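Support reply, case 0932

Customer input (verbatim):
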Amino acid sequence: MAVVHNTHVEIVNGEPKIVGTRFGVDDVAAMYILGESPVDWIVENYPLTRAQVHAALAYYYDHQAEIERLWREAEELAHQVAVPSEEVIARMKARMRRKQDEP
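Our regenerated output:
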């Protein structure tokens, strides 16, 4: 049985990113898991392929504890500055949109 490595995710400065983009795996996973955005919606609204989104989700499931720890830390910070989690998710989506517009 051949083992195929994920060619859609790379580690950049210690963070998992989708290869060739500035999109973080945690951003994509947050939209899907926390924001309840379907894969089709993500693909329609961002310059990502279905394969890239699914690769990001696969990475999330393989590293779920680590990524969810980052989410909890972000949630704690949001509570400290009194920002609702829905606004944090909206900001994450806006940040991803800005990233897609960068060269």
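We compared this against your earlier run and they match. Two observations from our side: Residues 9-101 form one domain. The CA atoms of residues 82 and 92 lie 16 Å apart. Please reopen the case if you see a mismatch on your end.
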